[in-house]
């Protein structure tokens, strides 16, 4: 069972991102403040859940959270400032959108660019330890998946409806055979014939 929050003294928001390792599309981030007594047995790290489970949890989180927000950085921003900084910026944008300002932040992962005047802790695999980070991971993932599914309508050759922009073998082959779409990250290269993913900004 995941813990509700990292600390109980201050009003805390959990933060996570989705889409860092993708070839195409934005990186999304979410910030979520849950009630102190929030409990939900099925809530877990989004990567441990099925697509259906995430979609079922999303409206519950959005309804029950004290505050939540989702934001993104697009492919052009990723190319300009690199994927790590874009992930931090997307998180900052999500935090800024919260209608209730948190007093403390818990970030999934081991690095973060400090948000002005709000202390934070980075938690490795935090989305599998704390409910607020798990909730943020689900919102970031589901909102990004929805965005990529909508893009798929205009760019069906890349099969974003299924791979959501991640570097599957079929997606890499499509890039090599068809070329880049307007939504591909140009600083992420696909090699041929090994089909290995490289990022110039890693």
TrEMBL record:
<dbReference type="InterPro" id="IPR036397">
    <property type="entry name" value="RNaseH_sf"/>
</dbReference>
<dbReference type="GO" id="GO:0043137">
    <property type="term" value="P:DNA replication, removal of RNA primer"/>
</dbReference>
<comment type="similarity">
    <text>Belongs to the RNase HII family.</text>
</comment>
<dbReference type="GO" id="GO:0005737">
    <property type="term" value="C:cytoplasm"/>
</dbReference>
<protein>
    <recommendedName>
        <fullName>Ribonuclease HII</fullName>
        <ecNumber>3.1.26.4</ecNumber>
    </recommendedName>
</protein>
<feature type="binding site">
    <location>
        <position position="108"/>
    </location>
    <ligand>
        <name>a divalent metal cation</name>
    </ligand>
</feature>
<feature type="binding site">
    <location>
        <position position="16"/>
    </location>
    <ligand>
        <name>a divalent metal cation</name>
    </ligand>
</feature>
<feature type="binding site">
    <location>
        <position position="17"/>
    </location>
    <ligand>
        <name>a divalent metal cation</name>
    </ligand>
</feature>
<keyword id="KW-0479">Metal-binding</keyword>
<keyword id="KW-0464">Manganese</keyword>
<feature type="domain" description="RNase H type-2">
    <location>
        <begin position="10"/>
        <end position="200"/>
    </location>
</feature>
<dbReference type="InterPro" id="IPR012337">
    <property type="entry name" value="RNaseH-like_sf"/>
</dbReference>
<dbReference type="GO" id="GO:0030145">
    <property type="term" value="F:manganese ion binding"/>
</dbReference>
<dbReference type="GO" id="GO:0006298">
    <property type="term" value="P:mismatch repair"/>
</dbReference>
<dbReference type="InterPro" id="IPR024567">
    <property type="entry name" value="RNase_HII/HIII_dom"/>
</dbReference>
<dbReference type="Pfam" id="PF01351">
    <property type="entry name" value="RNase_HII"/>
</dbReference>
<comment type="function">
    <text>Endonuclease that specifically degrades the RNA of RNA-DNA hybrids.</text>
</comment>
<keyword id="KW-0540">Nuclease</keyword>
<dbReference type="GO" id="GO:0003723">
    <property type="term" value="F:RNA binding"/>
</dbReference>
<dbReference type="GO" id="GO:0032299">
    <property type="term" value="C:ribonuclease H2 complex"/>
</dbReference>
<dbReference type="InterPro" id="IPR022898">
    <property type="entry name" value="RNase_HII"/>
</dbReference>
<keyword id="KW-0378">Hydrolase</keyword>
<dbReference type="InterPro" id="IPR001352">
    <property type="entry name" value="RNase_HII/HIII"/>
</dbReference>
<dbReference type="GO" id="GO:0004523">
    <property type="term" value="F:RNA-DNA hybrid ribonuclease activity"/>
</dbReference>
<keyword id="KW-0963">Cytoplasm</keyword>
<keyword id="KW-0255">Endonuclease</keyword>
């Amino acid at each position: 069972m995941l813990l509700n929050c990292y600390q109980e003294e201050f009003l805390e928001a959990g933060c996570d991102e989705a889409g860092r390792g993708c070839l195409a599309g934005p990186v999304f981030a979410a910030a979520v403040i849950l009630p102190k007594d929030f409990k939900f047995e099925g809530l877990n790290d989004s990567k441990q859940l099925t697509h259906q489970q995430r979609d079922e949890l999303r409206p519950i989180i959005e309804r029950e959270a004290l505050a939540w927000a989702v934001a993104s950085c697009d492919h052009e921003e990723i190319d300009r400032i690199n994927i790590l900084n874009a992930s931090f910026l997307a998180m900052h944008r999500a935090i800024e959108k919260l209608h209730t300002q948190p007093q403390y932040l818990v970030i999934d992962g081991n690095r973060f660019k400090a948000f002005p005047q709000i202390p934070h802790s980075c938690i490795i695999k935090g989305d599998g330890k704390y409910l607020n980070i798990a909730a943020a991971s689900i919102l970031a993932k589901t909102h990004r998946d929805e965005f990529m599914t909508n893009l798929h309508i205009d760019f069906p050759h890349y099969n974003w409806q299924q791979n959501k922009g991640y570097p599957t073998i079929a997606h890499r082959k499509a890039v090599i055979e068809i070329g880049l779409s307007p939504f591909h990250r140009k600083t992420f290269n696909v090699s041929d014939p090994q089909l290995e993913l490289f990022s110039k900004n890693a």
